[in-house]
């Protein structure tokens, strides 16, 4: 079930929302859990059984770790954590990487040694597995006590706003909200506003960029010239930002509507002046997860510069692999890891000293635009063909105008403005105009945006979220 589907907007969400505020507080977590199970089961009942297994496994191991802590048995505690991590990652690896590993073996052998299993990836497994691991590791580190109420733990792992595509909510960031949270009109109002903005990002902007980008990349590679290759890369850069940040906005908005406050997942990454800054602003929940649960345990930057560089490569190799079983994703992760190391070696100092900060922006834009080519390309060969086109000169069989529809141009302008430029000016606009007028205008804009989104959805516009496949 998609947040941007009519079923969700006009049936599921209203029924759950109204029911939530009609029943007593002590039953609200149960209602949210049942609603989350229905939401997830809509994509396949068998997937739900896998998620249930994850909940039960992590529930049991957290209790065992908690008991070992009470007994002051450090060996037992480590064994339980190790087993729990191995089981969680084994389940994830089976569904996500088995066919990838088989294809590598067959490729090296130059024959089909093992047949592909064609395993279907359960929706959201990468997200809820990382959430579950966050919980168990937090219990191990004694940041939290084990949750003895399995309904509360199940709600944490399966809560529908962030179940499918994040943000990845770490247990210590939300543990108290599971049982005690603020539910008021202010939170509901903010949640609705945030949801509408996220829906607009997805339906109006991301889908329009996807339409043009997909049409370009559907063409035979010989018909795509240099200009179109760059256009596709730029369009995808905007598409993935508005697609994923739009989903995060909707998830955060839904959370507020039910009293939960999730941490931000994006902070206008495309205005970054270094790759380090980009990763402090992009998919914040994933980057902080890897920092807390992989980079720091590996030693972080505490063991000298060479170990720091190695740790960064390991983390970004894992980041790429987390996104998908493909050399494209692995190289995409290592691409970013490489620039993070270069910035630590010397480039970071040059960027800080540079007085023409727009040059820093251009550098970062080139890094992530070129990186997104790997992310979007069908395979490594396709990515290399696109790079060849981008760094040579070849006439296109089609003109740029053929794919750059008038609607795309309008969305492109708004996409650039709202990727960080407008937001930096908005506080000044608020000061210049009476606040009441600004908020009235904002309310009118929200209504118009919602109306436009509904028109698109009624007309059958459909484009699943990019991060659903991870």
UniProtKB/TrEMBL annotation:
GO cellular component terms, A-Z: plasma membrane
Membrane topology per record: Multi-pass membrane protein
Compartment annotation: Cell membrane
UniProt KW RNA-binding keyword: no
Example GO BP: alginic acid biosynthetic process
Keyword Acyltransferase: yes
Keywords: Acyltransferase, Cell membrane, Membrane, Transferase, Transmembrane, Transmembrane helix
Family according to the record: Belongs to the membrane-bound acyltransferase family.
Protein name listed in UniProt: Alginate O-acetylation protein algI
Source organism of this protein record: Brachyspira pilosicoli B2904
Origin organism lineage: Bacteria, Pseudomonadati, Spirochaetota, Spirochaetia, Brachyspirales
């Amino acid at each position: 079930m998609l947040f941007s589907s009519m079923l969700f907007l006009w049936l599921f969400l209203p029924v759950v929302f109204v029911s939530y505020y009609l029943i007593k507080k002590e039953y609200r977590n149960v209602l949210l859990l049942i609603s989350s199970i229905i939401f997830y089961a809509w994509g396949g009942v068998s997937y739900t059984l896998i998620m249930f297994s994850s909940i039960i496994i992590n529930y049991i191991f957290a209790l065992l770790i908690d008991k070992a802590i009470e007994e002051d048995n450090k060996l037992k505690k480590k064994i339980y954590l190790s087993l729990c991590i191995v089981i969680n990652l084994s389940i994830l690896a089976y569904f996500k990487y088995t066919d990838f590993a088989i294809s590598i073996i067959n490729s090296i052998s130059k024959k089909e040694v093992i047949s592909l299993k064609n395993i279907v990836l359960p929706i959201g497994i990468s997200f809820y597995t990382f959430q579950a691991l966050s919980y168990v590791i937090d219990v191990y580190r004694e940041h939290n006590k084990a949750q003895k109420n399995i309904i509360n733990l199940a709600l944490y792992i399966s809560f529908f706003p962030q179940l499918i595509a994040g943000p990845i909510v770490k247990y210590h960031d939300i543990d108290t909200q599971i049982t005690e949270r603020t539910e008021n009109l202010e939170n509901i109002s903010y949640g609705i506003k945030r949801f509408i903005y996220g829906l607009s990002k997805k339906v109006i902007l991301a889908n329009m960029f996807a339409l043009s980008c997909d049409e370009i990349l559907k063409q035979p590679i010989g018909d795509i010239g240099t200009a179109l290759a760059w256009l596709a890369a730029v369009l995808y850069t905007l598409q993935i930002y508005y697609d994923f940040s739009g989903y995060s906005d909707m998830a955060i908005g839904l959370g507020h509507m039910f009293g939960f406050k999730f941490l931000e997942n994006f902070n206008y990454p495309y205005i970054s002046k270094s790759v380090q800054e980009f990763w402090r602003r992009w998919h914040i929940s994933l980057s902080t997860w890897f920092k807390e649960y992989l980079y720091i345990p590996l030693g972080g930057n505490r063991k000298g510069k060479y170990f720091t560089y190695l740790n960064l490569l390991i983390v970004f190799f894992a980041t790429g692999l987390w996104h998908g079983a493909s050399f494209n994703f692995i190289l995409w992760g290592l691409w970013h890891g490489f620039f993070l190391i270069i910035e630590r070696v010397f480039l970071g100092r040059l960027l800080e000293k540079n007085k023409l900060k727009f040059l820093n922006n251009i550098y970062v834009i080139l890094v992530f635009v070129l990186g997104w080519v790997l992310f979007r390309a069908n395979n490594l060969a396709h990515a290399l063909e696109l790079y060849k086109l981008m760094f040579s000169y070849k006439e296109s069989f089609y003109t740029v105008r053929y794919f750059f529809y008038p609607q795309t141009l309008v969305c492109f302008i708004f996409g650039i403005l709202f990727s960080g430029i407008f937001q930096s000016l908005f506080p000044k606009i608020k000061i210049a105009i009476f606040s009441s007028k600004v908020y009235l205008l904002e309310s009118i804009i929200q209504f118009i945006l919602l109306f436009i989104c509904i028109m698109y959805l009624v007309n059958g516009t459909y484009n699943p979220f990019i991060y659903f496949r991870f």
